[in-house]
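job 3f2a | input accepted
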Amino acid sequence: MSSELSPDNTALIVVDMSLDFLQIGAPFETEEGRDMLPNLIRFIRHCREINLPIIYLNHVHYPGARDMGTLADRFSVIRDGKAVRAGTEGVSIWPEIAPQTGDIVIEKIRQSGFMYTRLDATLKELKVVNLLIAGVSTGACVESTARDAVSRDYSVYMLSDVTAASGIPDLGWGEVDSDTLQRVFLTNFAYHLGKVASTEELMTGPLAGSPS
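job 3f2a | predicted structure (212 res):
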């Protein structure tokens, strides 16, 4: 059951904002993710000022772990260890939003941050009932995590200006540009699953309070 947003019952989830997703030429480069970084930097700073928990979900596979599942079939760069591989620079969080003391970092091995991780237990320990979702990409790891959160009865806010996705090439039904993809996923989420809000709405509204 949802409750009014406050730093005591809400957490920010930052999904896959690592170099493998953001650097120019990276295996899963999302240019749109770089474009929204100023908004995310500002919002993370605000969350820290009001003592709202920040949880980073970071996709990482360890050599020899045999935990890739069907991701290895769909993404050769994961199968071949060229992306999201432990011990490489690519799994580092983008420096301007790097985790700080008090932040929580959870490694994941699937698109959803709930699958095979301690995320749900961590949120229960924090007594969180509301989740704010940021990161890349909107139609994959962000949405997978958000949907799983809704299924676990969290009240979920998809953050419109700090989520992003690249366009998708024609796979038989026509090419989908990034703006259309973002608009459709946000609209679908707002209609079927949860809420959509901008960081500005939250910083000037329910999360505008002074630090506790």
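job 3f2a | The chain has a mean pLDDT of 96.
job 3f2a | closed
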